[in-house]
């Protein structure tokens, strides 16, 4: 069912107000940086358009190229945040990614933290995923996939990643959607080396939307993602140094900020988000991982909702291994397959 902008806004308001929230309370005191202060073009220079005041940037994808930017520094732990507005209309096959990585420096042992928006057919709920890798452990993906409770192409929303030696938190506005507490048993799978921030837009028609069923259609091009209100905190370092930089003060600063802790209302919002909008979790995927990975916190009530593939059950039936429409009280959810093969 097609939803208007006002319908999405109402859902967003109800979702936050049910916990006494206003939008982005944890992020009201962030320092906003200009593009020149903190970022550099990565590729597709002609499709990277900076605003006259240098406080925002548009990334475009057309039939010739996508585009992207990278942080000017690498950070040993950090907080990475931006207000983002996604492309509108038909964006199937188009991936917008906001992530950290050090793959350019550590090609075989890279670390990564991802937020990826998986393209959209106009009128359908947007889907996105988070993921993390440590020390090149790409064969142990830690994907979770979700639907958004608002239309991210209508207005800006803040997306943030916190990474400290002890925890990782993914935020959407003031809602923490995922928390990973470092476990000693994770070993080198927990990201530990300096990373840069990246943002990109690119054509992923072969997998992004409904497993590649819906491709990018360039009659709707250029596809445009807008970024503003950049915030980067962390310990800026050279990735390879004989004497490592002491980042203890920076870590202490990060862990003292509101975005580094989840209060009781936010934790309730996270639980409710995951109950209503998470449709895949590697922690419940016993086909891939017969024993859950060490950082997984298995919630019995949550586990009961998922099949052995880590995907939602729908009325207790298999539906030929694919998802069927699923409706939740107050918040309607439409679904069709959209994940790449795991």
UniProtKB/TrEMBL annotation:
Sequence ranges of Basic and acidic residues compositional bias: 329-342
Domain GH16: 6-227
Claim: Lyase is one of the keywords in the record: no
SUPFAM superfamilies assigned: Concanavalin A-like lectins/glucanases
Top class in the EC scheme: transferase
Entry's localization field: Secreted, Cell wall; Secreted, Extracellular space, Apoplast
Cellular component aspect of the GO annotation: apoplast
InterPro entries named among the record's database cross-references: Beta-glucanase-like, Beta-glucanase/XTH, ConA-like_dom_sf, XET_C, XTH
Record GO terms (molecular function): hydrolase activity, hydrolyzing O-glycosyl compounds; xyloglucan:xyloglucosyl transferase activity
Post-translational changes noted in the entry: Contains at least one intrachain disulfide bond essential for its enzymatic activity.
Location of the region described as Disordered in the Swiss-Prot/TrEMBL record: 310-342
Lineage: superkingdom: Eukaryota
Key word Nucleus present: no
Keywords from the named record: Apoplast, Cell wall, Cell wall biogenesis/degradation, Disulfide bond, Glycosidase, Hydrolase, Secreted, Signal, Transferase
Active site: 112, 116
A single GO BP: xyloglucan metabolic process
EC assignment: 2.4.1.207
Function according to Swiss-Prot or TrEMBL: Catalyzes xyloglucan endohydrolysis (XEH) and/or endotransglycosylation (XET). Cleaves and religates xyloglucan polymers, an essential constituent of the primary cell wall, and thereby participates in cell wall construction of growing tissues.
Family according to the record: Belongs to the glycosyl hydrolase 16 family.
Protein name: Xyloglucan endotransglucosylase/hydrolase
